[in-house]
Structures are given as C-alpha cells and as structure tokens.
Amino acid sequence: MPPAKSSARPNGRPSRNGKRPNYVRLALGQDTDDEMEDVATMDAGEEVEAPRDNGQNQWAAMLAEMKVAMLAELKAEHLRETQHLHETIADLKTTMKKSNERMEETIRGLQDTISQLSGTSNGTYA
C-alpha cells in the first residue's frame, strides 16, 4: 500500500476531515478522481493515464490496468465460448438433418412393405 497521508487513519477509517484516503476509496469501488477514464470501455493494451502523478494515482492506474486486462481476458473467453456454442449448434443441425433423412428412408421402406403385403393378401393384412 502507498504511504497514507498524516490525516489518514489505519484500516481506511475516515480521517479527521471526514474523507478516506484515495487508495481506500478506490479499493471500495469509489472514484478517486472525476478525470479518470471509464476503464470498462477500454480495450486491452490501451494506456491508462492518471491525471496527476502521486502515489495514490499510481495505485489507481495500476488497478485500472489490471481491470482492463481482466476485462480483455473475459471478453476473449466469452468469444471462445460463443464460437464453441456456434460449432455445437451446427453439429446438432447436421445430426438432425441426417436423422431426418434416415427416418424418411425408413418410412418409405415401411410404406413399400405395407404395399407389398396388401397386394399379396388382397387388401387385408396378414
């Protein structure tokens, strides 16, 4: 953790002025600066710049970079899963089509058998 300011108290409790240190607010998911970019819309590899260069903003930038990397990894995993699902659907369609063709052949064979049986027994089934 970066060194806390003299007004910050241990464990991120509010200081005497009622504000938490930036690194604690960031860890709690609170924005530390209005000038920070929304990392949820960033792509992997984009530079993350903090508006000021102090210890707290370095932590914010590191966390923002980690968030971008994690989002990129999740996006890649989602794309892989989606591709796998599309391949599975295509395989199922092919299997269903072959199954339907076999059923139609079986039905035609049964109809031929019925026709032959009805022709040999004068219209009645044996």
Sheet having the most strands: none
Shape: rod-shaped
Strand content: under 5%
Distance between the termini: 91 Å
Question: Helical region count?
Answer: 2
Q: By helix and strand content, what is the structural category? A: mainly alpha
Structural overview:
The chain is mostly helical and 126 residues long. It has one domain. The chain is built from two helices and no strands. The chain is rod-shaped, with a radius of gyration of 34 Å.
Topology, element by element:
Elements: H1 22-27, H2 55-120
Quick overview:
By secondary structure, the chain is mostly helical.
List keywords for this structure.
single chain; 126 residues; mainly alpha; 2 helices; 57% helix
